[in-house]
Design goal:
Blueprint: H1 8-26, E1 37-42, E2 45-57, E3 62-63, H2 67-76, E4 84-94, E5 99-102, H3 117-123, E6 133-135, H4 141-144, E7 160-164, H5 165-171, H6 174-179, H7 182-200, E8 204-207, E9 212-214, E10 217-221, E11 230-236, E12 239-243, H8 251-254, E13 261-262, H9 268-285, E14 288-290, E15 299-305, E16 308-313
Parallel strand pairs: 5-6, 6-7, 7-8, 12-14
Antiparallel strand pairs: 1-2, 2-4, 3-13, 4-5, 9-10, 10-11, 11-12, 14-15, 15-16
Amino acid sequence: MSMYGMKLPALCAFLCLIACSVVFSAAPMAGTQAPGYFRMMLGDFEITALLDGTSEFSPELLLNTTPALTKKLWEQQFIFSGKAPGCVNAFLINTGKHLILIDAGAGGVFGPTMGFAVENLRASGYRPEDVDTILLTHLHGDHVGGLIGKDGERVFPNAVVMVSKAENETWLSAEEAAKAPPARQNSFSLVRKAAAPYLAAKCWKTFEPGAELFPGLQTVAATGHTPGHTAYLVTSNNQQLLFMGDVIHNAATQFSHPSIAVQYDSDSVKAVECRKAVFSRLARDKVLAAGAHLAFPGIGYLRAEGAGYVWIPVTRPLPGSTAQ
């Protein structure tokens, strides 16, 4: 019996409870997030999604809709803040012979919430030096800014950068840049800056639509968002994944209403036609898709529903995957 009339085991338990309460209440919040990468297998190929960062999407950027429709669609997705959350994703493909990066993220171009693709690439177990090929879906800043560091040097010193010929001829053309409105001049100079060290090293190449760049990796023309926008179809052991780039920007509206376009499209009519064709094929053939601006990891399936589609995200490695 203790001096307070309490049995010793009970007293010890009481004192431990007090001690534990003090420790837990004093613990500071961690304030950090897990590394942004997700890994799965596609046949014999290893696929790694890399989170470059997050963004906010304003309703004013949407075309072919009304404020009332946008509000309704967003609220159905529990978006009440007036802006929709967005992501910027890049993707790695390890074929066993090549380590291929699809898009390079924003780098330091768009502020502190983006530019983490290389950090997450390292966290996933690879180094920028390991990448031998970079396939660009198009040449907007949030896809090419990560090609170079703060001093303009190549972030991926052993990589060959590949982009469609039409995209290259648009964004690296002095004539096209001169015709662009003042608001877009910065976009052209950003692309020239990102491409410069790779061009100097003769590590910048172009291709025509439909080209098979590697066994199991074919380019697919997906124009509309930009003149040479390209998707990449990867096939291994009868499994397929279409890296569709910016075929879609805003999941809360464009899956259910594919006719809704965005102001970023160079040709919104073609962009809508492309989106409808891509979505139809993905749903019909049950092909996996990956999107640059879908909620991380941005990989999933489409199911047709009414006049639109429903996105079914992949949230864990596919059955049979040996990835951790």
